[in-house]
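Hi R.,

Here's the chain you asked about this morning:
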Amino acid sequence: MNRILDLIEKEQQKSDANSFKVGDSIRVHTRVVEGDKERIQIFAGIVIGRKGRGLNETFTVRRISYGEGVERVFPLNSPRIAKIEIETEGSARRAKLNYLRRRKGQEATTVRE
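And here is the predicted structure, written out as tokens:
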């Protein structure tokens, strides 16, 4: 049974999924369906965490919008994600960057580079 599940998961996994890591500034291009039209919406920010493995892997992106912190969790292998661009590579010394939530202003958007 596990072999069958592994084969199904391999078909649905994206190949370019591991190209970014925690601390990187990325732009996530998501497909948004409005009525009968489909468009691409971009969410740019810092990856503050990755969670899960295989098909169930998710990542959290945080950005500051009009002085308010906005976080969004994306499934890594979702068909709604058109592509992921890396703007800058950050050097994080830990797996989760929850400390960025307490920072204000420019400090909240920078990780050691």
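One quick note: Helices lie at 2-12.

Cheers,
M.
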